[in-house]
Automatic annotation (TrEMBL):
Residues 31-170 form the N-acetyltransferase domain. SUPFAM superfamilies: Acyl-CoA N-acyltransferases (Nat). Transmembrane segments: none annotated. InterPro entries: Acyl_CoA_acyltransferase (IPR016181), GNAT_dom (IPR000182). This is GNAT family N-acetyltransferase. It holds the Pfam family Acetyltransf_1.
Length: 170
């Protein structure tokens, strides 16, 4: 079995003044899912993640999804354009006030339409609006969309670690 190498990038932000926002685009509505539905999160994960080989949670049971989504520190927002799901993000906050952008992405048919920057701006603003937040962080990798790392950095997130990883080939 051969190995494929990729790089994982870890980025963070320590205060809201570091945010370099991108204005919201017309006809993009971002709504928080205030009623937690773990099956909806599984659907969003598959819808957005399929083109980027998000596979780490494909084998998860209902109980695993439910445990993730229904914990008090987990929140989900969905972006809609003309009634269609354009993308989403999930935030996961720990007891120390560190908020991870757990998942973030656009549906493949909405990539390249100028939604990524405004959606990420919204995610960062939502994380900082959460009372007690001390740090916001995210990770991405070279298997993700080629513009992902640049978008994170353009919004003010700073690279603090890189890891070279091996992935078994299928």
């Amino acid at each position: 079995m051969s190995e494929h190498r990729y790089t994982t990038y870890y980025l963070d932000m320590h205060c809201p003044s570091q945010l370099r926002g991108k204005p919201m685009v017309e006809d993009l509505a971002i709504v928080e899912c205030r009623i937690k539905q773990y099956r909806f999160n599984r659907f969003l994960y598959q819808l957005v993640g399929a083109p980027w080989a998000w596979t780490d949670k494909l084998s998860w049971s209902d109980a695993q999804w439910q445990a993730l989504v229904e914990q008090p520190g987990h929140r989900t927002w969905v972006a809609y354009h003309q009634g269609a799901i354009a993308g989403y993000y999930e935030l996961l906050r720990d007891a120390e006030g560190e908020v991870e952008i757990l998942y973030f992405g656009l549906v493949d048919s909405f990539v390249g339409r100028g939604f990524g920057g405004p959606l990420l701006t919204h995610a960062l603003q939502s994380a900082w609006a959460w009372a007690g937040t001390r740090r916001v962080w995210v990770h991405t990798c070279t298997l993700d969309h080629p513009s992902a790392l640049a978008n994170y950095q353009a919004r003010g997130l700073r690279l603090y670690r890189e890891e070279l990883c091996d992935e078994p080939a299928d």
